[in-house]
Design goal:
By secondary structure, the protein is mainly alpha-helical. It has two helices and no strands.
């Protein structure tokens, strides 16, 4: 009789591993007004400027329609309307700048 081949035993081992990963991310958060808010403020400012311009135009037309006042008086009133319009535009610009500064903080 021939000798028997050596006996081979198979054994399966289960190894449990716990892997712990730490992931660090650097996130940049933008502060300040969002583009939509900026666009909204710009649109609002444009509308206010347009209203001031239309108001000044109406006053100019009113002054031009007054035929019984002297030419010098008419010019003075027109200059006054121009000054008021510039003052209103500057005030609106100042308010817009303040709002922009407040929105950034």
């Amino acid at each position: 009789l021939a000798p028997l081949p050596p006996r081979v035993e198979k054994q399966v081992e289960y190894v449990e591993k716990i892997v712990e990963k730490t992931v660090e991310r650097e996130v940049i958060i933008e502060q300040g007004p969002k583009p939509e808010e900026v666009a909204e403020m710009e649109a609002k400012l444009r509308q206010q400027n347009e209203e001031a311009r239309l108001k000044a135009e109406a006053r100019r037309a009113e002054v031009a329609a007054q035929r019984d006042i002297a030419e010098s008086e008419r010019k003075r009133l027109m200059a006054e309307v121009d000054r008021e319009e510039q003052k209103a535009l500057q005030e609106q610009q100042r308010k817009a700048e303040l709002q922009a500064k407040l929105a950034q903080t």
